Structure to design on (346 residues):
């Protein structure tokens, strides 16, 4: 694939060109000092000063709240009692500055929303309309463990373009035709023979990863043996079921669907949900199969590190971004849990 060199002044000018073709989303510094992905306006540029955003960019394809259908119960309305779909905006979207761990997460989540039996039109319309422009991670955090979670700071899975910061310029590795069209829209076309810079940058960045998980024994573990392991009470002891880990995670895909009405008009909406909530599995009968905190904590980690491994045979349902480690208010660490599960012997 081609490598294109983009002078940083040309980069700033080219970003403005993109607005003629794309809606543009990128990291942007918030008032509280954190960084989040947001839609940019002409004249704004992506802010690459952050190591990573506080929330993952999974909302690109899976909004926290999403209107799915609308309806009317007004008998004078010709569409009375009919559910009409509200389809998402599928005009071209450029997601610029997504880290490789978050782009790879999209490929894992796709396994849930795009199956042989069912294709989720809401998720897929957003996914297929987006071009993912990655930013290589040259300064990984101490909580990053992507290299042992199936990825890496220069991983290309799920990306259309991979950017590397070369000081006074960006090097852009073209990975797909969508990526080629993106660079053409920005007016960036200075092809260089500098693919070796990516391999050199990758080697340096990977050496900076100081955190790791062991996953080699997870697939061979008996599910019921892990389920009945004695360490779950210890792990769950501090948990307050806040759900922070699931909301910041790029691979958590659980949702709830609700109908809301105002007068005779109503909508059906999909909202993020969390297996950490006692309401998540509460039946209308009043029975709750995971009514205890320890059961919910066990479910989260068993899903990430065992059920997903067995079902898809694509490694763990985690990309090593470290968000849950950094943001858990009681310091529950998925890396330690993974080690416990991987090394457990009944």
């Amino acid at each position: 694939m081609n490598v294109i060199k983009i002078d940083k002044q040309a980069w700033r000018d080219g970003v403005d060109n993109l607005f003629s073709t794309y809606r543009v989303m990128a990291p942007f510094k918030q008032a509280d000092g954190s960084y989040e992905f947001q839609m940019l306006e002409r004249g704004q540029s992506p802010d690459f000063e952050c190591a990573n955003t506080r929330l993952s960019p999974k909302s690109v394809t899976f909004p926290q709240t999403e209107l799915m259908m609308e309806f009317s119960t007004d008998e004078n309305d010709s569409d009375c009692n009919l559910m009409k779909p509200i389809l998402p905006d599928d005009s071209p979207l450029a997601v610029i500055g997504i880290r490789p761990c978050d782009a790879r997460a999209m490929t894992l989540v796709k396994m849930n929303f795009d199956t042989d039996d069912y294709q989720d039109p809401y998720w897929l319309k957003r996914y297929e309309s987006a071009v993912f422009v990655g930013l290589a991670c040259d300064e990984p955090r101490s909580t990053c463990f992507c290299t042992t979670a199936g990825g890496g700071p220069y991983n290309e899975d799920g990306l259309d373009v991979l950017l590397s910061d070369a000081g006074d310029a960006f090097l852009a590795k073209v990975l797909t035709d969508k990526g080629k069209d993106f660079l053409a829209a920005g007016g960036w076309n200075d092809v260089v023979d500098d693919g070796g810079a990516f391999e050199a940058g990758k080697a340096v960045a990977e050496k900076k990863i100081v955190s790791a998980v062991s996953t080699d024994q997870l697939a061979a573990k008996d599910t019921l043996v892990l389920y009945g392991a004695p360490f779950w009470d210890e792990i769950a002891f501090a948990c307050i079921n806040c759900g922070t880990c699931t909301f910041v995670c790029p691979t958590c895909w659980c949702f709830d669907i609700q109908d809301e009405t105002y007068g005779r008009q109503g909508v059906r909406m999909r909202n993020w949900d969390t297996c950490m909530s006692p309401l998540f599995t509460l039946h209308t009968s009043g029975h709750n199969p995971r009514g205890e905190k320890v059961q919910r904590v066990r479910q989260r980690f068993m899903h990430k590190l065992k059920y997903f491994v067995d079902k898809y045979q694509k490694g763990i349902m985690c990309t090593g971004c470290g968000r849950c480690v950094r943001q858990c208010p009681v310091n529950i660490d998925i890396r330690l849990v993974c080690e416990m599960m991987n090394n457990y012997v009944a």
